């Protein structure tokens, strides 16, 4: 019994962390789909989401006197728009001029943007760990089967992420813009011939990906309570592994990959040793890339975004 | 350096000078350079030279063979740890550990890259990042109980040359310079060898190279093995100067810096690596007071460089022609 309870608890924690990875992985996978570019700056946009959330809550505290409950909504919306705007600007300035410059130049450019975003965060907010004001994170939770518990925060995290991912999936599959996105990810030139404004579609991808990443940053900061400017590197790389695991360029793949990575990592940390957690994640990446570079869902779904 | 005289931008008058004079002149300048400087700037020069060696080693992989290696720092760390461990546990004089450090790093280069050689550009890039991180985490987690965990190794004995203990920064500078000159000599020989031309062929067109009878897997593997071994040499040099080494040597940022040294200077170009090391190592040290904003400027420079001059500041002629040929083809239909 003890073992099963523990296992259930680990799975709940794993799925929660997996939801974060999925949200961030979506940004990587969408950009890779349309541009074939590893957007190394994505992790740092996600990190900016955490910092902007901090500013948002502090402003709300100063103005309204409280920052819990529904006042979260306007903060989330402003934060999402800001990070999305940064994403679009980065694409316009740092990636678009390099679209025909081979594969090396955009990678360096993306690393450069990551440096800029990280350095800005460190200079604006300082290098120390930051914590969100108390009283925002909901407490309490539900007890399941004995000692296993799911906290209110975990429920909120899961519901939010699944709603966001579901909405994105429907958007990509059912709307005109989503169809255009899938077309662009297959072939830029043919899409252009079909009357699709490729630049506009890429801009939309850079609106959605970083927007989702920004929200994920805020939720991660809420969940863990504290973070610093290196959040982008560590989480970004993991989320990227999740994207590869599911099959890069594939949206359901990123969701699946994130969940799987979260669960495997948590189980590994729980049953083997916490300090080997990251090694497990990288080992999965290496094994996947050696034996199945297209990822778990990479081959079955021909259409990629 | 004959590469200098080959540049089409160099005035004809300079081109007529015998390349040997250039080379002797440069060696004399590098010997005299640290003399008027204080210990701090001598160390900065040493660091620049060390990263030039690292850049040259990565240049074999990234520049000549065109393989994206973003985990190069791992081999730098492996070399340093090999030298440090042999010195601490077996009391082997540090200079004698250098060949072992090269061999061990090259061996790791072999076993790590052998299974991933079939991967294309981006995928290769990611796997190398992962391998780099795995090496760092193994060192942090003290895998064999000998690497000292997160604190690394300390009290490595200083290198001793003919009874002279190399303690002053200037001695380390000259030791580094010696190896730098050997490196340049070796790499210039490699560049023009059968193997060097095979690398560039593989970089330009792998299928055509294969059709010409080049064993592409073998050639790529050799690029990784030689490049990794050479990075190990730089690691051993580092261990001798600092006497303290930590797993942070293998962190992703170090690999990124090496990658940028090669690309910003100009992939495949030896003088380019010098320019890159100057830009990534010397300049940030000189502007230390602006340290807080250093990374932001670095990032800005990286983006601007890629947009304005993607072939690098001092490109190899072959790559420059290639990039501009692509542009010419891209613009013709319009």
Helicity level of chain B: over 70%
Question: Biggest sheet of chain B, in brief?
Answer: 2 strands, antiparallel
Q: What is Rg of chain A? A: 19 Å
Class of secondary structure makeup of chain A = mainly alpha
Based on CA atoms alone, the radius of gyration of chain B comes out at: 20 Å
Q: What's the mean pLDDT score of chain B?
A: 85
Total domains of chain A? 1
Q: Number of DSSP helices of chain B?
A: 15
Oligomer: heterodimer
User: Largest beta sheet of chain A, briefly?
Assistant: 2 strands, antiparallel
- CATH topology label of chain A: ABC transporter involved in vitamin B12 uptake, BtuC
Q: Any low-confidence stretches of chain A, pLDDT <50, length ≥5?
A: 300-305
Placed side by side, the strands forming the largest sheet of chain B appear as 1-2
Q: Choose one word for the global shape of chain A.
A: globular
Shape of chain B: globular
How is the largest sheet of chain A built, in terms of strand order? 1-4
- The level-1 CATH class of chain A: Mainly Alpha
Give the termini separation of chain B: 40 Å
Q: What would you call the structural class of chain B? A: mainly alpha
Residue-averaged pLDDT of chain A: 86
Helix and strand pattern of chain B = HHHHHHHEEHHHHHHHH
């Amino acid at each position: 019994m003890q073992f099963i309870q523990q296992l259930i608890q680990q799975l709940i924690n794993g799925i929660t962390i997996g939801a974060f990875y999925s949200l961030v992985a979506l940004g990587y996978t969408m950009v890779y789909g349309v541009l074939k570019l590893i957007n190394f700056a994505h992790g740092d946009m996600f990190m900016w989401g955490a910092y902007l959330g901090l500013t948002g809550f502090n402003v709300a505290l100063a103005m309204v006197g409280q920052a819990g409950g529904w006042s979260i909504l306007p903060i989330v919306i402003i934060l999402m728009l800001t990070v999305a705007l940064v994403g679009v600007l980065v694409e316009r300035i740092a990636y678009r001029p390099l679209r025909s410059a081979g594969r090396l130049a955009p990678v360096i450019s993306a690393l450069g943007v990551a440096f800029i975003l990280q350095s800005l965060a460190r200079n604006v907010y300082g290098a120390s760990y930051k914590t969100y004001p108390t009283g925002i994170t909901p407490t309490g939770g539900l007890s399941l089967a004995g000692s296993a518990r799911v906290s209110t925060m975990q429920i909120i995290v899961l519901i939010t992420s699944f709603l966001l991912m579901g909405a994105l999936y429907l958007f990509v599959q059912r709307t005109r813009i989503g169809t255009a996105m899938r077309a662009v990810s297959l072939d830029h030139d043919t899409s252009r011939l079909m009357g699709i404004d490729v630049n506009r579609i890429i801009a939309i991808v850079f609106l959605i990906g970083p927007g989702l990443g920004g929200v994920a940053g805020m939720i991660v900061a809420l969940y863990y309570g504290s973070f610093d400017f290196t959040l982008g590197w560590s989480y970004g790389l993991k989320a990227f592994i999740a994207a590869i695991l599911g099959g890069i360029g594939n949206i359901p793949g990123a969701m699946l990959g994130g969940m799987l990575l979260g669960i495997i990592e948590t189980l590994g940390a729980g049953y083997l040793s916490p300090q080997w957690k990251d090694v497990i994640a990288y080992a999965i990446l290496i094994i996947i890339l050696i034996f199945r570079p297209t990822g778990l869902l990479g081959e079955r779904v021909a259409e990629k975004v | 350096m004959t590469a200098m005289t080959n540049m089409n931008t160099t005035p004809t008058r300079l081109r007529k000078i015998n390349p040997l004079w250039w080379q002797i002149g440069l060696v004399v300048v590098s010997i005299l350079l640290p003399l008027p400087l204080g210990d701090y700037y001598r160390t900065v020069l040493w660091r620049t030279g060390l990263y030039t060696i690292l850049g040259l080693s990565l240049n074999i992989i990234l520049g000549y063979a065109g393989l994206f290696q973003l985990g190069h720092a791992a081999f730098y760390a492996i070399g340093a740890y090999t030298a440090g461990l042999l010195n601490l546990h077996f009391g082997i004089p540090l200079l004698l550990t250098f060949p072992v450090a090269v061999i061990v790093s090259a061996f790791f280069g072999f076993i790590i890259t052998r299974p991933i050689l079939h991967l294309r550009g981006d995928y290769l890039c990611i796997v190398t990042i992962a391998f780099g991180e795995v090496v760092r985490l193994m060192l942090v987690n003290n895998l064999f109980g000998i690497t000292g965990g997160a604190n690394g190794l300390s009290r490595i004995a200083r290198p001793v040359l003919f009874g002279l203990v190399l303690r002053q920064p200037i001695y380390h500078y000259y030791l580094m310079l010696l190896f730098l000159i050997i490196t340049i000599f070796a790499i210039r020989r490699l560049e023009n060898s059968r193997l060097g031309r095979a690398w560039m062929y593989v970089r330009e067109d792998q299928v055509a190279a294969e059709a010409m009878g080049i064993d592409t897997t073998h050639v790529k593997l050799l690029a990784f093995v030689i490049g990794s071994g050479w990075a190990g040499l730089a690691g051993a040099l580092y261990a001798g100067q600092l006497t303290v080494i930590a797993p942070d040597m293998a962190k992703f940022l170090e690999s990124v810096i090496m990658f940028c040294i090669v690309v910003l200077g100009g992939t495949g170009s030896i003088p380019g690596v010098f320019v890159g090391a100057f830009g990534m190592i010397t300049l940030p040290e000189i502007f230390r007071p602006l340290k807080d904003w250093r990374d932001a400027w670095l990032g800005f420079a990286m983006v601007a460089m890629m947009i304005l001059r993607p072939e690098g500041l001092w490109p190899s002629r072959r790559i420059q022609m290639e990039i501009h040929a692509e542009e010419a083809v891209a613009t013709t239909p319009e």
